[in-house]
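Notes taken during the Thursday session

The instructor put the following on the board and asked us to keep it in front of us for the whole hour. The protein is NAD(P)-dependent dehydrogenase, short-chain alcohol dehydrogenase family. We were told not to look anything up and to reason only from what is written here. First, the residues (250 in total):
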Amino acid sequence: MQKLENKVAIITGATSGMGKAIAINFVANGAKVILSGRDTTRGNALVTELGDNSIFIAGDIRSASYNELLVRKAIEHFDKLDILSLNAGILGIGSITDLPEDLWKSTLDTNLSSIFYLSKYAIPELQKNEDASILINASIAAYKSFPNHPAYCASKAGSLALMRQMAVEYAPEIRVNAICPGPVDTPLLWNSAKAFNNPEKAVEEAGEKTLLKRLGTPKDIASLALFLVSEDASWITGTAMTIDGGILNV
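Then, after some discussion, the predicted structure tokens were revealed:
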């Protein structure tokens, strides 16, 4: 039996990087998935790759009504909802004094408010099923500061506080956890490196600074995500699990 057989998951940030790898891994393990993202071309291409067990709904994750739509489409297409995998994120690069106010708001809306919106509309459906799960893709930025990333760091720290609150409020019906990746080789990491004078060197050094001497891969993150939403993790909730090659220990 596959780990997610007969499970239905909404996956945000699904068209690239960690979200895409999670979507591929979930479907490979029997899940039906609703894929969320902005890029219609990439979203439709992923549906072609994954097949009939997937649908793509394009939209702006910062919108409450779009998050409500994702839940509605899950019920219309697959009759239920078991899992939320929340991966949408932007960086909002700029120092406190330089960061435009609208970019601050957009970053928090994308990285934090979207978790609230989707959870708000999904929780009544999740409560109908056994072993329902919410998994938030946070970051080691919830614990560690990075130059010119105030909005990103604040939003990721906030996501952990929200995770713990939901874990308390909706136990034992719904397990709520977070993963905190370190430097993973994704477009977001390369965009983040633009905050440094030499982006390519910054990425290279990030891998070298880990205890395991390499960048993480989206597949590394997808493997942990699968574990945390599966029955293998049935006694884990309210936990933020770091997956960073050991870089926080350096």
